[in-house]
Design a protein that fits this description.
- By secondary structure, the protein is of the alpha+beta class.
- 26% of the residues lie in helices and 25% in strands.
- It has nine helices and 19 strands.
- The strands form five sheets. Strands 9, 12, 15, 16, 17, 18 and 19 form a seven-stranded mixed β-sheet that branches. The protein has a four-stranded antiparallel β-sheet with strand order 1-8-6-3, with no helix packed on it.
- Helix 5 (228-242) packs across helix 6 (286-301) and helix 5 (228-242) crosses helix 7 (375-390).
Length: 407
């Protein structure tokens, strides 16, 4: 017998622990080399764990277990032969057994009440006290009817007699490591930054005209759609060059300002919010931005995104408008200092050159760290984004949209 110990590989720098999200095989299964055998959650992404060899697998960790990088999570018997696909020969039919007369079921034994019946263990009592629930309201499943810690965890306070016969079940499940990390980072951002949000509105008439005029030829030439994200990304990179403090972050007692622009794009995936990074967005064409965002969003939603593709980023764009959000105050993605929130597009009456017209309008929001970004920079940045989106031909396309969209 030749046994291979499979250890948790390092998903990336600074990650010391992962969580077994799902086993894709069962104990005793035959696995092929490079076959995906598990999905593991790190605090940055969900990754697949491939088998390092072919053989019979023995699992050494349960779903939901937190395991250290380098820890053995399964064994593979590489000497085991691959099971044959043939089925066993059919056995001769056996005579049907003679049915016996049904016997009366014995009466269930009545539980004997003791001093333990209905009493709570110390751990259970603490939990019940926090929930303001009496132990007498909980049916104990422990020895002699004692209320266990698990009984207390699952106990739900009574709010009187239900007015309907509908379900009142409560599901309790552990959050994924990625979701817990997102929660931790959001609280960190609120507690450690001097976060402030400023707002503006954008008339997207000119953007819509360009999209309508060029969308068919753009998709035919490049194989991707001409969406709003390329216009917003180009407008943001222009504004960040004009106001470099927004493209900076605090490191201890120092401020780091970058001469490159890596845009984190918030994507809602099956495991929660992810922010893959578009590298050197300031150098990309409209086609380059659309293609890169599509590639990263697809990988994030399919659970194929890597840690490296989600690490870094100097500024974030999030689009709540795809879910119908009218207005929000996005939370900074630390250690970054700024995040732009896009919202839904609503046709509204607005004044243009002294005339009331119906125009496609969007509210935009910039949340920023006031410790290093002052009001002048924050408001100026948002105005620069607005200006570029309301005059994209001149400010984003050098007065030649055909050339800009062909590259």
């Amino acid at each position: 017998m030749s046994i291979l110990e499979m250890k948790v590989p390092s998903p990336g720098e600074s990650i010391t622990e992962v969580e077994i999200a799902t086993w894709l095989v069962k104990d005793g299964d035959y696995v092929e080399k490079d076959q995906a055998i598990a999905e593991v959650d790190s605090d940055k992404a969900t990754l697949e764990l491939p088998a390092e060899a072919s053989g019979i697998i023995t699992l050494k960790a349960e779903e939901g277990d937190a395991v250290a990088v380098g820890q053995v999570v399964c064994l593979i018997d590489t000497a085991a032969a691959k099971p044959s696909g043939s089925t066993p020969a059919a056995e001769a039919p056996k005579a049907a057994p003679v049915a016996e007369a049904p016997k009366a079921a014995p009466a269930p034994a009545q539980p004997v009440a003791t001093y333990a019946t209905g009493s709570a263990s110390p751990a259970a009592k603490k939990i019940l006290d926090e929930k303001n629930i009496s132990a007498s309201e909980v049916k104990g499943t422990g020895k002699e009817g004692r209320v266990t810690k698990e009984d207390a965890i699952n106990a739900v306070p009574s709010f009187g007699t239900p007015t309907s016969a509908g379900s009142r079940g409560v599901e309790r499940k552990k959050m994924s490591m990625l979701r817990r990390k997102v929660a931790e980072r959001l609280v960190e951002a609120k507690n450690t930054t001097a976060m402030l949000t400023t707002f503006n509105e954008v008339n997207l008439t000119e953007v819509n005209k360009l999209r309508s005029q060029y969308k068919d030829s753009f998709k035919a030439k490049h194989g991707v759609s001409l969406g709003y994200m390329s216009f917003f990304t180009k407008a943001v990179t222009r504004a960040l060059k004009l106001f470099p403090d927004v493209n900076s972050m605090i490191d201890g007692q120092e401020q780091l300002t970058f001469d490159f622009i890596d845009i984190s794009v918030a994507v809602s995936g099956p495991k929660g919010l992810m922010v893959p990074v578009v590298r050197n967005a300031e150098l990309l064409t409209f086609r380059g931005v659309e293609a890169d965002i599509k590639r990263l969003a697809t990988k994030a939603r399919d659970g194929q995104i890597t840690v490296d593709e989600m690490t870094g980023g100097t500024f974030t764009i999030t689009n709540g408008g795809v879910f119908g959000s009218m207005l929000s105050t996005p939370i900074i993605n630390p250690p970054q200092s700024g995040i732009l929130g896009m919202h839904n597009i609503i046709e509204r009456p607005v004044a243009v050159n002294g005339q009331v017209v119906i125009a496609p309008m969007m509210y935009i929001a910039l949340s920023y760290d006031h410790r290093i970004i002052d009001g002048r920079e924050s408001v100026g940045f948002l105005v620069a984004v607005k200006e570029a989106l309301e005059n994209p031909t001149e400010l984003l396309m050098d007065n030649n949209p055909t050339k800009a969209l062909e590259l």
